Amino acid sequence: MSNLDWDSKTVIGFKAKAPKVTRNASDLNGDRLQKARRTGAVVATDKKVTAGGNKARPGPDHQRIAKLDRENEVAPPPKVNASVGKAIQTARMEKQLTQKDLAQKTNEKPSVIQDYESGKAIPNAQVLSKFERILGVKLRGADIGKKLEGPKKS
Q1: Which of 36, 79, 91, 135 could join 41 in a cystine, given CB atoms 3.0 to 4.6 angstroms apart?
Q2: At residue 17, does pLDDT exceed 90?
Q3: How far apart are CA 1 and CA 29, in angstroms?
Q4: HSE (side-chain half, CA atoms, 13 Å) at 60
């Protein structure tokens, strides 16, 4: 143990930094660039992004794009009418079904029934037709809440 040298140090995982050489337009095919690449030096290239543009006056494109953004506001999808929710609720109560029972019969989640009854749901024709078939009440078009008749006999 007496042959240890306390003044020297060994650093593990430390690489010596290579000198950085910047690339100019005049050095594209120059000897300095090739020599730096051969020796393993890091060669950085800078690219001009705003070449040929007028920085003092921005183009009218930005104004046009902002105007388009303001015009194309997306309206939220329409919700179910309150009369539809009321009709579902009254028909369900007449048949003595809970929301959970109606959900099981229509293969929907109870939260879907709750959303339709509260008027928060986005109308879906397939779901409404299932409700119409199970509850026997018209839920689409005119005469919402009217009892459905059986198939017409001719």
Answers
A1: 36
A2: no
A3: 57
A4: 1
